[in-house]
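Cross-posted from the bioinformatics board.
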Amino acid sequence: MKKKSDLPFALPAIILVALMTQIPFLLTIAYSTLRWNLSRPDLPVKFVGIDNYLFFLKAPKFPMLPEFYSILWQTILITGLTLVLCTVTGFLISILLNNKVPGVKLARTLMLAPFFVMSTASGVMWKTTILNTTFGWYGVIVKALGGAPVDLVSYHPLVVIIFLFWWQWMPFFVLVILAGLQSIPLELEDSMRVDGVNWWQSTFLIKLPLITNHIRVAVMLGLVFIVKEFGLILVTTAGGPGTRSYTLPYAVYMQVFNANNVGRAGALATITVLLVLLTVNLLYQSIKKRNAAAA
Amino acid sequence: MKRVSIVLTSMLFLALFLALGTQAFAQTINIALANNPISQALDKFAKANYKVPGVTINIAVLPENDLRQKLTTEASMGGTTYDMFFIGPYEANNWARNGWLENLEPYFSALNQTRAKWYDRADLIQGMVGSVSLDGDAYAIPFYGESSFIMYNKELFTAKGLKMPNEPTWDQIYELAKKVNDPAKGIVGMTMRGAPGWGMSGAPFVTIVNAFGGRFYDMDWNATVDTPEQRGAWQMYKKILRDAGQKDILSYTYNECIALMQSGKCGIYYDATSIAPPLESTGSKVKGKVGYVMPPHQKMMTNTAWLWNWSMGINPKSDDAKKQAVFDFMLWATSKDFIKMTVDTDPTGGSTPPASRSSTYLLPAYKKAPYAAMTLKTLESTDFTKPTLEPVPYVGLQYIAIPEFADAGTQMTQWLADYVVDKMSLDDAISKTQDLFNQVAIDGNYRK
């Protein structure tokens, strides 16, 4: 007897999920093909094909590249460096927090605190009460030490943004990696001790390979979260100076809310989503390949 | 049991009826204001004194850049989050044309004689009303107006033996700022807005461009950013802030500039005339020590100030009852009574909306204010239809009155910021701005 397909039963759920998740994206793609400026209702909304994409991608004055490429590079730099910093420090701190010492539970809770502070709140706090050269701790301390404080937000915006992203997201990495470390069987730890394995070997040659999947998951989720982080940039550097701390999502925001240009914002948003999907997919494939090899 | 159910059901219906009833008669008016001192004062006065049965006023005070973005999105998308739009002539002009503002003439016509006499519409400064009108119809009411001038700390000038000319040039201002600047003592020579944004650093910067004889377009809408005049203006803005300005240049909106000037540690401040009252208010360390002179000129000798007002308009998408409630609130906030109340409460004039009504300048307390005469003089010297030395196809002194300028002006100030902190060369910044303004002329179908 021919087996009946399960598809009719799953179809309503598939349609519902597709409608809820894909319609905004499909609409964005549709908008990206239009010349549509909200502040110019007198100009008709017009289909322009891939013109909006070309506006960002084409380089008429090559080798001088348009703004899009520097924003793309900044996005890669901010996201990449934050991920590396979060992974390295997250792993090291997790190792520390994985010890059974008095007060470790309190230390774990305190370590997670920055993750639960709203990004806009932490941005304002860092910008005004800490990094300000006149009123902030940084300014006061540097002056007390006889130095001249540099306006970090203006002169080193990328360093500030990466540091704040790290401060905000590192606890998330600790959370995931610590869970991985705690899943290592106690028997294995006992065996290591019996075999006389030193700290360096146990940490980097045994534990680290065992929790690689946890780290990859943390990096994959971290990538999705960090690349779309927006509030922190808005309240600290507002993308500046110039566009030096713009990321792609911030540029999309400016296209919609400052330029009121729906078409170009749609094109930029589509490019951003495609790039993120591509990167996440690469990471996901590497996890799958590793799991298959392990099996 | 049955009786209990009946009682409970009746109570539920009663509660529902009461809730709906209250909903039907009460009006909540949502308003967003800019976070400048005079508007913040309106927020306080409205919360304390505006008592109209059945009307609740909900006021949010937002940073100027955010307010502009939010309201533009709201107006263009036909949203009703805010019932009253707090805007300037730049928006009013474009929005009235787009149908994003309610025509106020029918509301004025419906006023009875007593109320019309109480309000005295003719007392509103006509230049200000005209800047937010279209084809003779008012689409907004000016709440307060401003031009720009130089404010300087007389005490610091005397200590250094310096004298401020009554009509300084930008070169003189730069030299004076450098002489006053004394980092060892924590004295800043001159402060100006440095935070990017067309209405933020763009306001002083574009007036510098005008003063240097620069313009943004020729009569055929070809961009004219790459000219010696414009370059001179870019260089002047940078050298003042780098050689004699505040340390955190790009973080400074007018709020930080005001705080710095009020602290007594700044020599010169170029900004809006409406900034003067907070400098003369109680608590300011420079109260009574500030001198006021005309905005600097250079190649262009007059009309080098800016002209702006913050006005109140009605969201045409709100329902009729709300529109009427908003109009009533607007009349209250722009009335002579409101102005008198602000002067009575704060005799320094720090909470009084300037340049909206002629009668304000007849109030004895206000007439005495050290900045009053210079405010009037600068207001009278401005003509926003002839902003530049050479003819241009646009109007507007510190902005170009086209919808695209909000974005183009902001991008220009971002590159200006880059240039100021040495992240971009002048050539690159000028070249990018030139390309951008050409693109705007093409995208907006201005170039024929």
